[in-house]
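Following the same procedure, backbone shapes were mapped to integers, yielding the entry below.
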Amino acid sequence: MLSAGLTAFLTGITEPLEFSFLFVAPVLYGIHVLLAGTSFLVMHLLGVKIGMTFSGGFIDYILYGLLNWDRSHALLVIPVGIVYAIVYYFLFDFAIRKFKLKTPGREDEETEIRNSSVAKLPFDVLDAMGGKENIKHLDACITRLRVEVVDKSKVDVAGIKALGASGVLEVGNNMQAIFGPKSDQIKHDMAKIMSGEITKPSETTVTEEMSDEPVHVEALGTTDIYAPGVGQIIPLSEVPDQVFAGKMMGDGVGFIPEKGEIVAPFDGTVKTIFPTKHAIGLESESGVEVLIHIGIDTVKLNGEGFESLINVDEKVTQGQPLMKVNLAYLKAHAPSIVYTNDYYKS
């Protein structure tokens, strides 16, 4: 949140902050819209005239406001801004407490992660989604399970998180559970469960034994990670997707390519190629794992615009071409290229 706040302050790009409460607390966004609108009206009535190059952040305030303060009346922004900050704080605080809004940090206490075997996990997720009758549409990509439900009130969000989801997004009746690379397998298993191809495994009793023996965890080595092509690297918080911007898939960066060729960022092995070719999982020689996710919602393109140049389990070297991408086609459908590290849970 600190990086998102600094980005909003310096550049005026407020989407990372707004996305943190837009879907979980739309009441706050409504208050934000009203206050933002009246702030422009107040500035106009006070005769404040400050231009902007992009989104009206602190940089624009200095260049087009303070440097021309005698004509722009930019100093009036400071007292008005302080008043609005106080109004924002108390209105948001009142709304959050009054309506018990689940803003970041105020989610229900998560229960301890349940012991759910790989075979049992899809059944547990299906139950947490409200059961077979509550599923209207089922889909997935390499980062998240996408489920359209009939009745959102039947969905156990805390239960889904307890099953291992790093986050759950709610957009209307559409639920997005962030299970990472295993999301697609969960989707396939859930579909087979719903069609009757898979039956629920029998319950087994597990006895836990405590041990005083020390556990030795092997430390991973370090890996130099290079850009996956020619282009511009941007902070992950600026990527127009809440899952990546919120680092639910791990830390990383955004990448804006200039050429339609994605290359290996280090020497290593290809671990995963998603069927629609929009995502590649790599593991370095020292064990560092990186996910290169090409575009936002590009799973819907069904492989159009992508040409894979490698295979799973193939050894690659830094700079080796991995994927050819039709940028002209993708620019009309995908905002950015993203790659994150540590996408496997250790």
Q: What stands out?
A: The first helix runs from residue 2 to 11. The chain has eleven helices and 14 strands. The mean pLDDT is 82. The chain has three domains: 2-99, 121-195, 231-341.
